Amino acid sequence: ALQAQAGAQAVATDVSDPASVEQLFDVADKAGPLSLVVFNASGRARGPIAELDPEAVRQALLVGAYGGFLVAQQAARRMLALGS
Predict the structure, then answer these.
(1) Tens-of-pLDDT digits for all 84 residues of the chain?
(2) Helix (H, G, I), strand (E, B) or coil at 11
(3) Architecture of the domain defined by 2-81
């Protein structure tokens, strides 16, 4: 409902995958020049540190940190090309 109300387009994206992030920005490029990007993806591994599953922690870091980098990189490439 929010998507329709805002006139927005939803694009399923795995932010820990460079090709998926690039595809997201390719879709966004069709809507017009980029002026703002908000990254709000996160992954979580909850529990006592001694009991956390290392793979769950790795995935959470890939989403939050690496995903943030990949999104920022694609945004910067487009914004720099526009002189921003």
Answers:
(1) 888 998 888 899 999 999 999 999 999 999 999 889 999 999 999 999 999 999 999 999 999 999 999 999 999 999 999 998
(2) coil
(3) 3-Layer(aba) Sandwich (3.40)
